[in-house]
Amino acid sequence: MSQVCSVHEHKMALSRALHCSSLLIAALLLIFPSSAALSHAIFIFGDSLVDAGNNDYLVTLSKANAPPYGVDFAFSGGKPTGRFTNGMTIADILGEALGQRSFPPPYLAPNSSAAMTNSGINYASGSSGIFDLMRPIGRVPLGQQISYFEKTRAQILENMEEEAASDFFKTALFIVAAGSNDILEYLSPSVPFFGREKPDPSYFQDVLVSNLTFYLKVPPISPYCSFVSLALCLQLTSIFFPSIKRLNELGARKFVVSDVGPLGCIPYVRALEFMPTGECSASANRVTEGYNKKLKRMVEKMNQEMGPES
């Protein structure tokens, strides 16, 4: 699958699309047993890799509502749908492979509520990140996406018995594909929310993984303290964010968590580093590789702690 790419985050090469595709399928095989039943519902969170049109309903420069986006998307007759690709997203491909008959609609679309119990909902937003403090353009950061899911869950509970709703969420699939934009911002020459100087790459990776872990399992760190003492962040989180629910607490049991592709090979980063034709930025790829290794360890740890039916 090739991706039609535009500004900043969306300059993803074909190699990244294939990398993420194989990763998602591999992750699916690892995180829940093959004998487990999967409902038709898939709930999707992340950035432009899985955005199905939410940004079409925002005032933003980050949109995919014009050709050639969607040119190979048979379900729309070749018209743009807000997907940052010429055809299906990774989440679409995965859902189709699992037998899903329709794609989860974007949450911000007017008709999304009517379809949510049949196919799930897509909350992903192009240009979004794990950290809430990203560039000042319209997007829905990961924390807000999860807040939207809380509203969806409340609607479902109004129309289902509690036990049926619990089973519904246990068998649904939760796809999370985020982190690329956070790393791209880190690699950029000037990033407002870092302050006077950027943190060490290893520390940045740790905090990024920690924030994602909190979104999946425990309340998220406030974006305003992402790069100060982690202990202080946890303390502030417990004081100021007691109402933020975890996806796991909200009933999610089956996750597909995507890592980040080789960002050192995309045109934007190669231009920043003045890389010769055909060469990638080794330093940028080391940042993504370090993050991916730590993310993998986090997922493995969560599997052990949460168990198959936690």
Describe the structure in your own words.
41% of the residues lie in helices and 5% in strands. The chain has a 4-stranded parallel sheet with strand order 2-1-3-4. α7 (201-216) packs parallel to α10. The two termini are 35 Å apart. The protein has helices at residues 14-31, 90-97, 112-119, 142-159, 162-171, 180-187, 201-216, 230-240, 267-272, 282-306, and strands at 42-46, 120-122, 173-177, 254-257. It is mainly alpha-helical and 310 residues long. Mean pLDDT is 77; it is low at 1-37 and 219-245. It contains 10 helices and 4 strands; from the N terminus they run αβααβααβαααβαα.
Short description:
InterPro entries: GDSL, GDSL_Est/Lipase, Lipase_GDSL_AS, SGNH_hydro_sf, SGNH_plant_lipase-like. It comes from Eleusine coracana subsp. coracana. This protein has 10 helices and 4 strands; from the N terminus they run αβααβααβαααβαα.
